[in-house]
Design goal:
heterodimer, A: mainly alpha, 2 domains, 69% helix, globular, B: mainly alpha, 68% helix
Chain lengths: 425, 450
């Protein structure tokens, strides 16, 4: 009883301490868009509408960002604790869960109401419950993983190893994995179904973002001449008809996504233009696969933060939401924000490739440990990050947030397992 | 065990007193989040942030407390957390003296969210702060541990400091609880308690005075003019010229037919703005030292010259206070910020759907007996008569009654929140008295009733 109270106290203090920095939750431009959708009830698919729908429900009780902040952070904290408590004593696990939560790259991201933060919270708690001995709790865990999948378009890449490796069946071997794969597929389809059913206005995010960027990047590295570009981009809207390659070079920036590019190739606005963009993408990628890979590699380097950190810290409320919420930080909060922006934002702690290196470095030990949970966790992080090679629209630290708790948990658990085995010897 | 039994067993294990308290508090937050702010609250936050100088219109200790909390988390939320959690935990500990922890937790949560309490505790007012400090202070003073009792005195001191008239509420608490269970004889104990009470009151005034950066003179500006109008209203015929001669320095708005004008416009539920603004303006706004000196001298002279008229006026104000039937001065209060302060305080909030539905429901109760202060005053007296042997309920009820009685002399206006402490004490005292009666009946029947 005392231990339980101690755990609760540590987690509560950890959460309240975090609120000093994050209360009532920060809102970037994306968050504002989703909040507006939540309030209007008209959902688009630019961001997965499940999050806006959830926000709408939460706003029935608590208006503003605080309800969502509470959801994403408490699930993260409790999930982190449950996972660490598998290897550590409860009080120690609670302390480490708070340490993980307070890590600047984690706390700075979890403070913002983003689909990434929501997904990470549900993933951690879902994973913690999925490992329970009780069947009913495992089902709740699975439901949370389903919610996590609905939060991001690429959410299913995170859950693939988690469900396939960790879901318990009465069978063993190939039958078990086949059934798990079926379960993951079902979860993914349900998640897509939910988002599809909620979508009222289709925005075609792939056509308006990744496809255009890919086309421009591929043609840029293919050194295509104007005639080739003209032939490849038949039907694609363009703001100019001459000096096409030069314009491509000027507007294509691997780290900036589609934003500067739309000055030259505007986003498609009707089905005909979208069909043209889709056809152009297929043509360009199949004609210049090497250039496509080079472009994606350039983008991915920025995603991993190899050259410099990208979009690591967001604080306050975007000016687009000035009518929804007025950002007025307390003295304490203002100084914490300054520290985050001046120190953490330029530090190595917000460069995803470092966490990736840690995870890959520990991979041998993870496999050797034959611990299903650690294997699933490491696989989830590597697969989800690797998929960003193809699907990341822009580099942003939050896309890689899952690497941080994964690396932290792997380091703690493997280090302790090693220390214990050494002690036994 | 049957499946149903197992389910109930699981629920029984999960729903502990702590869980009930937490759920009750979260439910309270659904109504109150992030805390409502009236003009008074907005003004105090403005002082807390240093936008305006701290003045003594409201006790500065509250603005200073708010300053530190606002430094941690900007806005009203931490003040709301402070007042509501103190009230909830204090009520729980007091109730636990009479009933089982789980029932105490349930009733404490219920007392936090009942309309009579939540309409005040959801707003950042000195009244709500005082209620939180007082009930938590009472709970601590019942403890056997010295550390908790010291905490209790600190809380009682803070309650005294956040409201000028809180001393009326703390008097019975200190007289009953100071040195209780010790070896001192009762008269020594009561004597010492009175000394502690006086010391606390004086110290709280001094501490408040320390933080004042700009004087606003609330008594000569707000209370005294209303009293003077009241005395003139209930005095026998006053010769206008004599009245003017007796009140040199008073900034009369018009100097002819003063008593006729006062008798036309005076209402006991009025506040100072009613007598310093049209249409019923009697005085010009009290703004200079000469005005204040004139008002102070006139108050003394008129009170001494017409003591019955003064008492009659105060009695009418007190009756108007008891006759209050609305959950707030202008109905149940649910504004997040006073519009005047919107440009300065950078605080924007709006009601959630559930919150709005709840507020609408509260408006439905407005002007019903639920908020009728007189009912609680009578009920508190009756409960005191029934349960006077029980120390806990007696302390609570006497504190509420004493605070209300104190309004006879000092109420500057009529507002539900001034009487909220009486109502909170009556509801809590009612639960304690019922628990006591049930216990006694159980004993008579040879069984213990929780």
């Amino acid at each position: 009883m005392r231990t339980r109270l101690g755990v609760l106290a540590i987690l509560a203090v950890g959460w309240l301490g975090f609120l000093l920095y994050a209360y009532p939750g920060y809102l970037s431009f994306d968050s504002i868009v989703q909040l507006r959708e939540a309030r209007s009830g008209v959902f688009t698919d630019w961001h997965p509408p499940a999050m806006a729908f959830l926000w709408r429900l939460v706003e029935h009780v608590i208006r503003g960002p605080f309800g969502m902040l509470t959801l994403q952070t408490t699930t993260f904290l409790v999930g982190g604790y449950l996972l660490l408590a598998r290897y550590l004593k409860p009080l120690v696990a609670a302390i480490f869960a708070v340490v993980l939560f307070w890590l600047p790259p984690v706390s700075s991201t979890m403070a913002v109401i983003w689909k990434d933060s929501q997904m990470t919270g549900y993933l951690l708690l879902g994973l913690g419950l999925l490992l329970s001995e009780r069947a009913r709790t495992r089902y709740i865990g699975l439901a949370l993983l389903l919610v996590a999948t609905t939060m991001r378009h690429n959410g299913f890449t995170f859950t693939l190893p988690l469900i396939v490796i960790l879901w318990r069946w009465p069978w063993q071997g190939a039958k078990r994995y086949a059934a798990s794969l079926g379960l993951w597929l079902a979860t993914t389809l349900v998640a897509f179904g939910i988002n599809g059913a909620l979508t009222e206005v289709k925005m075609h995010p792939w056509h308006g973002s990744i496809a255009l960027h890919d086309i421009a990047g591929t043609l840029r590295y293919a050194n295509a001449n104007d005639d080739e570009i003209r032939a490849d981009l038949v039907g694609v809207p363009m703001t100019a008809t001459d000096h096409l390659y030069e314009r491509l070079r000027a507007t294509y920036v691997p780290a900036a996504g589609v934003f500067p590019l739309v000055a030259f190739i505007p986003q498609p606005i009707d089905d005909t233009q979208r069909a043209a963009v889709q056809a152009a993408w297929k043509r360009v990628v199949s004609a210049y696969p090497g250039s496509y890979l080079k472009h994606r590699y350039k983008v991915f380097k920025h995603v991993l933060g190899v050259t410099d950190p990208h979009g690591p810290i967001w604080v306050g409320t975007d000016t687009a939401g000035a009518d929804l919420y007025e950002d007025r930080p307390s003295e304490t909060q203002a100084s914490m924000r300054d520290w985050m922006l001046q120190v953490v934002a330029n530090s190595w702690s917000v460069r995803p490739f470092l966490y990736m290196i840690v995870i890959i470095a520990l991979l041998y030990n993870v496999v050797k440990s034959r611990d299903r949970f650690l294997i699933a966790l490491a696989s989830s992080a590597i697969i989800s990050e690797a998929v960003l090679f193809f699907v990341s629209p822009t580099p942003d630290f939050r896309y890689s947030l899952w690497l941080v708790p994964t690396a932290f948990i792997l380091v703690i658990t493997l280090f302790l397992t090693r220390a214990r085995s050494l002690r036994k010897v | 065990m049957t499946r149903r039994g197992r389910v109930w067993g699981a629920i029984d294990r999960c729903v502990s007193d702590r869980v009930i308290l937490l759920a009750g508090w979260l439910w309270f937050l659904v109504y109150a989040y992030p805390g409502y702010m009236s003009y008074d609250s907005s003004w105090q936050l403005s002082q807390a942030r240093g936008i305006e100088s701290i003045n003594e219109w409201h006790p500065p200790v509250m603005a200073v407390m708010w300053r530190y909390l606002d430094d941690l988390v900007a806005g009203p939320i931490l003040m709301l957390v402070l007042q509501s959690s103190l009230f909830l935990l204090g009520t729980f500990v007091v109730l636990r003296r009479a009933i089982s922890p789980r029932k105490a937790a349930f009733l404490a949560a219920l007392l936090l969210v009942v309309p009579q309490n939540i309409v005040v505790l959801s707003v950042i007012w000195k009244d709500s702060q005082m209620a939180g400090f007082l009930i938590a202070g009472i709970a601590c003073l019942f403890s056997q541990r010295r550390g908790w009792r010291v905490t209790g005195y600190v809380l009682i001191f803070l309650a005294t400091a956040v409201r000028y008239n809180a001393a009326a509420a703390t008097f019975p608490i200190l007289v009953f609880q100071f040195g209780y269970g010790g070896s001192l004889r009762w008269w020594k104990r009561v004597g010492l308690a009175c000394l502690v009470w006086v010391a606390m009151f004086v110290a709280s005034q001094r501490v408040n005075a320390l933080f004042v950066q700009q004087h606003t003179y609330p008594w000569p500006t707000a209370s005294a003019p209303v009293d003077i109008a009241g005395i003139i209203r209930y005095s026998p015929h006053l010769d206008n010229d004599q009245l003017l001669r007796d009140t040199p320095g008073v900034p009369w708005h018009k100097t002819d037919k003063i008593q006729i004008r006062v008798r036309t416009w005076y209402r006991p539920e009025q506040q100072f703005l009613n007598v310093t603004q049209e249409p019923g303006q009697i005085f010009d706004y009290i703004s200079t030292d000469a005005d204040r000196a004139g008002i102070t001298a006139a108050w003394k002279k008129l009170v001494l010259a017409h003591p019955l008229a003064f008492l009659h006026h105060r009695w009418e104000v007190f009756i108007a206070t008891l006759d209050c039937r609305s959950g707030g001065a202008g109905g149940v209060f649910s504004e997040f910020l006073n519009p005047i302060y919107e440009p300065h305080l950078s605080h924007k909030a709006s009601h959630s759907r559930v919150q709005q539905l709840w507020i609408d429901a509260m408006h439905w109760f407005d002007d019903t007996p639920m908020f009728h202060v007189a009912l609680y005053f009578i009920l508190a007296l009756a409960l005191l008569g029934i349960g006077w042997r029980d120390r806990t309920s007696s302390v609570v009820l006497l504190s509420g009654l004493a605070h209300e009685a104190g309004l006879f002399l000092v109420a500057p206006a009529v507002d539900y929140r001034y009487s909220q402490w009486l109502i909170a004490c009556t509801l809590l005292g009612g639960v304690l008295v019922i628990a006591q009666r049930l216990r006694m009946r159980g004993k008579r029947h040879g069984s213990r009733v929780e």
